[in-house]
Amino acid sequence: MRILALDTSTEWLTVAAGDGIAWHVRAEHARSTNSERVLPVVDAVLADAGWTLRDLDGIAFGAGPGTFTGVRIACSIAQGLAFGADLPVVAVGTLAALAQAAWRERNVKRVVACLDARMREVYVAAYIREEDHWHTTLEPVVLKPDDVRLPPGNDWHGEGDGYAAYPQLAALAGLASVNATAVPDARAVAELALPELAAGRGVAPEDARPLYVRHRVALTSAERAVGARL
């Protein structure tokens, strides 16, 4: 099956196209220009693959958690592209994508994914890989860094920029390693989406939804004054 995937949940824009064997991937540190750059990068990745939208079997996007603007961009772009090409859509959690990339790159099977949520908070989830599947042991949640606790057991591996934003998290008992530079990866989004597409669990574009976790959409005056960001 051929799939296109994109993620704009952080300051990084990543787009991937592949069939589970061969992959074409591009990534840019786009910061606030994600909305301007995403379609040109999608076009470039499809050109790399030699495909058009009509050649695809589905589209996936990093559904969050992440920045409110970023996850909305990814969802709306995936919806628009899929609607025009009559394709199903798969929403993939960004924290799960961090775990998938860590397993592919370093063969780690117990991952505590952690992204900076701003507002002096982090998004956290924990996953264990058994056989060919990921099992969620901690559903995505937003927490103060001091409230983060690892699930029982040892040999957990930390992934994500939450560990860079709050270095004290790297010292949590039970963490065997930390990759604080990891960001959600569009190839990982696609890898997790492919089995969903194959099983017929893609949804109509209008039914695709982001995963916000934190549902605040505005800052107080005091929060803006100290430079807080959503």
Give an overview of the whole structure:
The chain has 230 residues and is α/β, with parallel strands linked by helices. The chain folds into two domains: 3-93 and 184-225, Nucleotidyltransferase, domain 5 (2-Layer Sandwich); 95-179, Nucleotidyltransferase, domain 5 (2-Layer Sandwich), CATH 3.30.420.40. The protein contains six helices and ten strands; from the N terminus they run βββαβαβαββββαβαα. It has helices at residues 34-49, 68-85, 94-106, 162-165, 186-198, 221-225; strands at 3-7, 13-18, 23-28, 58-64, 89-93, 110-116, 122-130, 133-143, 156-159, 175-179. The strands form two sheets. The protein has a five-stranded mixed β-sheet, sandwiched between helices. Helix 3 (94-106) packs across helix 5. The protein is globular, with a radius of gyration of 17 Å.
Strand segment count:
10
Using only CA atoms, what is the Rg? 17 Å
- How many domains is the backbone divided into? 2
* End-to-end gap: 36 Å
Give the averaged pLDDT, no decimals. Answer: 93
Write the layout of secondary structure elements.
Blueprint: E1 3-7, E2 13-18, E3 23-28, H1 34-49, E4 58-64, H2 68-85, E5 89-93, H3 94-106, E6 110-116, E7 122-130, E8 133-143, E9 156-159, H4 162-165, E10 175-179, H5 186-198, H6 221-225
Parallel strand pairs: 1-4, 4-5, 6-9, 9-10
Antiparallel strand pairs: 1-2, 2-3, 6-7, 7-8
Helix pairs in contact: 3-5
Structure at a glance:
Helix content is 30%, strand content 28%. With 230 residues, it is of the alpha/beta class.
